[in-house]
Amino acid sequence: MKKIKYLFTVLILYVLLANLYQNYIYYLIPYNPLEDITDNPYSCHFTLNYSNGGITNASYNLNTNTLIFKYFSDLNLIPLKEETNKEEIFEHENDIHFSYRFRFRPPKLSTHYYITIDEIWLDNLSVLCIRSNKPGFHNGYYKIIDSKFDYKYVNDLINTCEK
Questions:
Q1: What is the pLDDT along the chain (163 residues), one digit of tens a residue?
Q2: CB atoms < 10 A from the CB of 66, how many?
Q3: Distance between CA 53 and CA 163 in Å, rounded?
Q4: Rounded to an integer, what distance in angstroms lies between the CA atom of residue 36 and that of residue 21?
Q5: Which of 58, 54, 77 is nearest to 68 (CA)?
Q6: Is 26 exposed, middle or buried (0-12, 13-18, 19+ CB in 10 A)?
Q7: Do the beta carbons of residue 130 and residue 34 sit within 8 Å?
């Protein structure tokens, strides 16, 4: 009977600790999900979105794509909880935002995957949305905690590649 009580107590404690980590501690620890990606991007599609359309371009230059992806993977990010950060994530005065989509491995291979970095709003360059179809990837909103997104640097990389 004592073993069942101890087992039940340990099980409840485990569930409580897992819940505490998933709902609170996870959002306090800096984490960039792009750091775990070891592949080089095969292509990079980027868009400057306006309310009435956008400007889209693509890069297939491996060196440029790798530099742009390295910039994103070197950012110091912290996960944001959508429920508690709705105002910061979803409310914007400016409708201009940036989108980047990296494709890894040629699309003809069945193992290709993509990573989309989206919703980088011009009026809030410190929050971005990162999503992927790669199994186990941590999709969600992230905040840059020590700087802001430097779109001028990324645009310079893209423009240098096109020349």
A1: 778 888 888 888 888 888 888 777 888 889 999 998 988 898 899 998 988 888 888 888 899 999 999 999 999 999 998 888 888 888 888 888 999 999 997 777 677 899 999 999 988 899 999 999 999 899 999 999 988 899 888 888 877 765 4
A2: 15
A3: 25
A4: 21
A5: 58
A6: middle
A7: yes
**Whole-prediction pTM value?**
0.84
Tokens of 34: 């792009």
Pick from 11, 115, 29: nearest CA to 70: 115
How many Å apart are CA 100 and CA 138, to the nearest integer?
A: 17
